[in-house]
Hints:
4-stranded parallel beta sheet; 13 helices; 5-stranded parallel beta sheet; alpha/beta; globular
Amino acid sequence: MDWGDLPVAVIGAGPVGLAAAAHLLERGLEPLVLEAGPTVGAAVGEWGHVRVFSTWRYNLDPAGRRLLERHGWEAPRPTALPTGERIVSDYLKPLAATPELAPRIRFGARVTAVTRRGLDKGRSLGREQAPFVLRVQNDRGATSEVVARAVIDASGTWNTPAPLGASGLPAPGEAAARTAGLVTGPLPDVARDGFAGRRTLVVGSGHSAANSVLALAELARTSPGTHVLWAIRAESPARAYGGGDADELPARGQLGTRLHRLVDTGRVELVTAFRLQRLEILDGPAVRVHAHDGRTLDVDRIVPATGFRPDLSILSELRLDLDPAVEAPRRLGPLIDPDFHSCGTVPPHGAKLLAHPEKDFYIVGMKSYGRAPTFLMATGYEQVRSVAAALAGDTAAADRVELTLPDTGVCSTDGRGGAGADSCCGSVPTPVAISAR
């Protein structure tokens, strides 16, 4: 097969994955999108009840918008704040249904491994001349292979949340508590999932945590017996409160302001410097949460908002160059380390910073940030614009920056307030444009 006939494989049909496909088409390249779920935006749909704090302006990729408008699509009001459900129904599904993209998306196609054809990781001779091979498992368990000229991994991190344990490992008792339903998903729908009249602990200091705390506080206002506790690892909640009126996204600034007010008025019990050590299941059922310093909290449920991690297991036969701390591309890592940066201090970037020793392989979207939480969807759109240009041989366009990000109103952290934060600007589903992909 001629290399020119091979597609560029895109892993994941979330917002960034579909944007990558749209940009590739504009560049005259053939995309093939492989989505593990049954529909586009499958991860976004899992937190569809959440209203993001970024307006539609930041949730639409330029190439995706151009493709849709050619078919008579009308964009939502740019100043409106969509829910995850509306992002899927009003943007992602129409985009995936266009005649250009629809035949180029495979659903129920889970990528389990990526390698070079005929070469393992240790073989160098002829490596750049060998196409990629992606091993794909369908929803019936059957396995097939896809051959590609390049690979863009936009698979996100939604399915690999970080554990509750403060040392980076699941806390003793955590697995049993999850099995018992005492530990929920990262962004549960508290109005529907049986939180009324219960005592709930939210763990984490980013916007995912803030969303859950605010939703639970609203539920407590109308449901007697509902109590809200919020535990953070930092000694101060200042970073979680954000930039307030200085934030260029008003809804994001208001998020922290409302959170601050709930704590000040006692409607939310804030527990600082809480480093979770182990969980103990009690009768009820309930759970006792033990901290390293001996403190304990007895609650009915725990909402873990401690961030996410990249699944790198499918890439074990590729030559990657990753930052040892955040597991992002090495040149990007120091720019996004949450101990030293907020998303307001991370510059837009593209193919050059995302490149690996494995030529024509890129990790984009939330997964490109590894363990760092400061990803913005608009950043993902700029990443794939640049990557598509690089794959098309347009180095000048790939190196050009075509994005201006809104300021958070928060300066870089000094490190003391950032430990354990799942985001300073909104992690997977509440960034300046969510990205579960």
